[in-house]
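pipeline/complex-builder :: batch 7 item 3
reading input block
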Amino acid sequence: MPPEPGNSANETRRDFLKQSSLLTAIALAPGAVLKAAGERWDEKIAGAIEKVPLHVEVNGVQHVVSVEPRVTLLDLLREELHLTGTKKGCDRGQCGACTVHVNGVRINSCLSLAVTNEGKKITTIEGLASGKTLHPMQAAFIKHDGFQCGYCTSGQIMSAVALVKEGHANSETEIREFMSGNICRCGAYPNIVNAIKEVKEGGLS
Amino acid sequence: MNQFQYTRTTETAAAVKLLAKEPAAQLLAGGTNLIDLMKMGIVVPQRLVDINQLPLKSIEKLGGGLRIGALATNTDVAESPLVKQYFPLLALAINAGASPQLRNMATVGGNMMQRTRCPYFFDLMMPCNKRAPGTGCSALAGYNRMHAVFGASNKCIAVNPSDMNVALTALDADVDISGAKGSRKIKFADFHRLPGDQPELDNNLQKTEIITAIELPFSPFTKQVDYLKVRDRSSYAFALVSVAAGLQIENNRITRAALAMGGLAHKPWRLKTAEAFLQGKMASEAIFKQAAAVAMEGAKAYEHNKFKLKLAPNAILQALKTAAATA
Amino acid sequence: MKKNAIGEPLSRVDGRLKVTGAAQYSGEYALPGLTYGVLVPANVTCGTILEIDSKAASNAPGVLAVITPFNAPKVPGYQPGAAKPVKGLKLFNDDQVYFNGQPIALVVADTFERAVYAAALVKARYDKKPFETDFHKNMDKSIVPQGGNYKDYTRGEADAYRNAPVKIEQEYTLPSEMHNPMELHVTTAFWEGEDKVTLYTKSQGVVSSQKAIANAFKLEEKNVQINSRFVGGAFGSSLRTWPHEVAAVQAAKLLRRPVKLTLTREQMFTLVGYRPLTIQKIGIGATPDGRLVGITHESFSQTAVYEEFTERSVNVSRFLYASPNANTRYKVVPLHVGVPAPMRGPGEATGAFGLESALDELSYALNMDPIELRLKNYAEVDPERNLPWSSKYLKECYQLGAERIGWSKRPAKPGTLRDGDWLVGYGIGCGVFGAYRSRTLAKIKLLPDGSINLQSATSDIGPGTATSMIIIAAETLGWAAEKISFDLGDSSFPMAPTQGGSATVSSVGSAVHDACMALKQKIYSLSGKPENSTDAIDYGTILQKLALPVLEITQESQAGEDAKKYSMYSFSAHFAQVYVHALTGVVQVKKLVATVDAGRIVNHKTASSQMIGGAVGGIGMAITEEAVIDNRYGRYINGNLADYHVPVNADIPQIEAIFIDQPDFIINPIGTKGIGEISLIGVAPAIANAVYNATGIRIRELPITPDKLLV
């Protein structure tokens, strides 16, 4: 669907194309949003659609919640379920810090609306260890010092666990490529690769 | 992000019906592009129709080729034994795009519908004819390093960002489409369009239609293929240029060639004249170089993307060399 | 019981918390009644805000407040006449816009989604004024820094290189680079009553944050509690208290509820600093046998119109090599942009790219091996201050690094070594950074079970501070590491400096060392043993024997006068082997070796990681990172992690860190110097020099993207 040709865009153009001093009104939202707000559209429909019931299993625990459709899985986990192990680094699918497993598959939870996960099984970093026993990948990250600040770590580990399962951890080059959806600004990449190699070679349950 | 109504549908016909009734509704598949666009305020739907439950996920062998459901994820396709066996070029291209997590979410249909990464399209505060028709193209005289050298108009010089699309173009795919008026099939090469005077339209899909499948006819390009993507970092980055190359070589003679490029145009760019040039010639670096030069005829660069006039033919040459050298 | 000693590798003591997701960062405290703050950025680059229409936003569901310059409660420290007025940008205090993206309003709502949505509804009317964001166009308007800290420098004769028989005169450009820590900058604030506030905030220095917030709101420092136990990276972006942190506190006061204000990734491109775009003009001259005659180093650096930022990009040329003549000049170009901030290896990283590139160019002009050229001009004493080095093992770094990278395979003639379709080259770049130490306090507690707890108000942005402190304590006390804990990130702990300038182990480690020594002395004196006793102490039973419930000492530590007689620096030599694709210009760093003279290494495990991490940052600086502004609009056009390219795993080879590991006890009692900055400084020129060696193409404007290497 093409974007709404909102008023703001026209004003934006007029605004930017003339460099002289002038008065302008620019809203930071497209016309459609403003129109909806002006007509109190969102409040009118709020009663009917504001929240949708959702059943998800997170780390083996069943949750029945009621969420606005615009809530992402990431924000549901962090703000609603207080599972803050899953991190927000960009909120746009550009860093991988929010990686979780949905039905065993790694995804970016920041680009997944919570409501689209109806009936699914979510695993987050908090659900990886069995009791006090760390998952081998968690232990390997500690052993190989695969992190520094720790902020990307949950996403890295969730990705790494999935990667071994996917069968793409067969060489350093392959590990690097298939771990490239998880950015680490501290630069722990070589240690992360070493941790994954060890788990892969030792077998991963 | 604005509030919107959310509807789940499990039947393709129901989704089509909904679209006909409510053309402002927006289909939600993997969401990797749409949710981002909604967060940025670029797409503001009043209703999302979640089509992830539609039975459009299968990848199957048909008489003359493969049929890939529009809701098969990028990973499903890249990992499919059938795809790897018959269309390794497609698997290579898909794996060159995005990240494993995004490929697990993104679908074939969604990838086809992926919008440009032009920075001006993504910033509500800057003019963009694609986002807000009639406001002007900021890229024309702006930072146009990532932009088109083929098929652009003075309204828009954005490029299609997909890798998958490049391979599907080279492989002569067809697109199956369902709409209120029934089903139709179009050539993949005709699916995306050039910007012309209507850059807001990326493709020829009607608002009330839904992509149901991709059909790939069996081709000789099962071994000697390469997908070369040149980018600013080694992975998880959009292409400066990319090349999908397939060769059929018998006794060192090229009997058939397939070539398409990404990062060069508003649509995946098929290099038909270069393919024709290669056909029947002996495979050699000199011939590949000439084909690359043929491919670049008519290219037009802007202030910041002149390097593509050099990089693109070099990339073609390299991709052909690699494909030819693949046993 | 195993006793840990300095030098032995120890896994991070907070590792388990980090790999299980249990480590809580500043945006992860579920406070009762928590509200969500979202900033509204200006979309003009310079001007006056005439009006803000927040009606739609205020009416949107769940919105609790829309704070604008026209209704914001006054921040006392922002007002004219305030004692110690707050420097820099004062959000919502006046109607002026100095840069595109400057927040003009703060929307607070009961959920994150509602706050984000409402923020998009805020409208503003501006009186727009002309603006300048184009650095190149405005270089002629550069000015000498006004802050008073900067002085031009001349040793011997100025511009002496001009008369040298062999000389290089070149310009080197570094684009603006963003810190981009993975954690979004976030502050959660809540008040108790009128005069007491608590913050969970992303901070490299809880004490400096405490002072800044206390000063802004004119509170007693003890009534400002700052918590920053886990920091998701920072690299300099959290060295200071930013205006949005003050705004969160302001909003929390207004609403009398906890407010969590999180910046978006896009907002982090304008609101939390960056390494500023810098052009360096370097002249370097030598005699035909490679003795330096003179170095002239001049820098032009971007700053903001509303606040001046300076860094030491020219200073490396004063002391890294023994040139008889050297002079430096430094100017800033004020633009309508956000203010820069120190970023890992601030100034020196920029300067080293210039100087080490120029020296490399000189080596080819002289037809001399770059290492030989460096050895020929090795500074045996600090030529700038004419003082001996407290320690310097850079020669050893050259030698070890050259061996490990395989320097002997380096082609003397560029562009002559190939591996298939790839051109291969080798390069060297050196790093240097001051070895600092500041006054620090640490508290030590001996508990009845024989465990030791240490506290200091330092931070840990990732180097593994607590782990290192525990090792230092373990060795000093002769006690097992697992019996020792170290707490940080809390402003109520004894005073520690901000974590920056590679000085934490030196400053806080010294305080920990001294606190441990003081505890031992105390125990000896209580048990009647001589002060200099070397007897082992059984901490498990000592309190029982002494009939004490607990022993607690707060110890202050700082450098002695002796330190002033020396020049104190850490040194590094980085070696890169790169592959450049002959057709596509793609650069792959195949091998990187970092050789380091950073004094004694406390924990080889975390120190190696830090060196590797700095090298990764250097690879980004060299080949991928560049923040781009469209000067027509004054807006960043790649303000996100898809278009601003932080290196990914596939960009990074195995990286080897080699430590000389010689203690320097002049700086501190542990013998450390610091590695945070030198891990990055010198990496980018090593790669750029290797690219030249591979291709014969000299790239003087980073990053080295494929388009620059197409011939």
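note: The interface with chain B takes residues 43, 113, 116-117, 120, 421, 581, 583-586, 588, 623-624, 628, 630, 632-633, 635, 637-638, 642-643, 645, 647-651, 703, 705-707, 710 of chain C (CB under 8 Å).
queue -> next item
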